Amino acid sequence: MECRNKDVFGMNQRLRRTVRHPRACPAEHAAQLRTATRGSADASEFNGILRNRFGRGDSTDRGAVAVEAALIFPVLVLMLFGIIEFSLFLRDHVALSAAVRSGARTASAEPRMSTFSTDAAGAVLRAGTGMPFSTVEEMWVYEANAGGYPTNGGSTSGTTGSFTSCTTNCLVFHYSGSSFTQSSGSWSHTLVNACPGDAGMTNVGVFIKANHRFVSGIFGNTVDITDHAVLRFEPIPASQLLQSGQCKP
Question: Which of 21, 105, 144, 235 is deepest in the core (most CB within 10 A)?
């Protein structure tokens, strides 16, 4: 009697394809069952090896990526905040530089005029729109020596000094919400030398000290920004000399 292929319920697909009905061919059925079972065991063992090898590799790779991300992410965040903080600091510094130059130009254009210092303060306000003036601690309009420092009533030919005090021939302004108001110091416009060709012509300087606040706090809370500009008072024209009778003290 010819043996025919029969499906055996409950066996896997491979067994169904290869195993004949046991009642049809008992001996052949036993041999085929042993062969199919051996093949299934070999396949299961091979699949286990693949899972162990490649499965562990995926887990290891994922763990390495997580460690690398944990190491790199703080550095990237630090760089990002560094760029932001530096940009804001640079903005304030550039605005401060533009403000002191504008103030010095305005003051130098008003030799022996009583409003030269207040007009300089107004020019600072107009030129420094890129920075918050609430951070400005003080502004000086001062007589400068050859080195650009306040003379404080001393020699104008010196090249050294500091911005630690402003007393004589120096005016201190503070920002009060919408404008600068003089708070201390003294410097009369009648002490300015604006005679054409005179070796002792007066230099006028504008100094500003501001407090820059960091946004993130990673690099600290605040840092001081200072800048100053110095120009020589413009000489008084001859037509005005005839009217005023003098161009220096």
Answer: 144
Q: 196 to each of 111, 112, 235, 248, how far by Cα in Å?
A: 11, 13, 5, 10
Amino acid at site 38:
R
CB 249 within 8 A of CB 194: no
Q: pLDDT tens digits for 56-90?
A: 556 667 778 888 888 899 999 999 999 999 999 99
Burial of 175 from C-beta contacts in 10 A (0-12 / 13-18 / 19+): buried
pLDDT per residue as tens digits for the range 107-140? 999 999 999 999 999 999 999 888 888 899 999 9
Take residue 34 and report the two structure tokens written for it. Answer: 């042993």
| pTM of the shown model | 0.71
Element (H, E) at 92: helix 26-108
Q: What 3-state DSSP class applies to 184?
A: strand
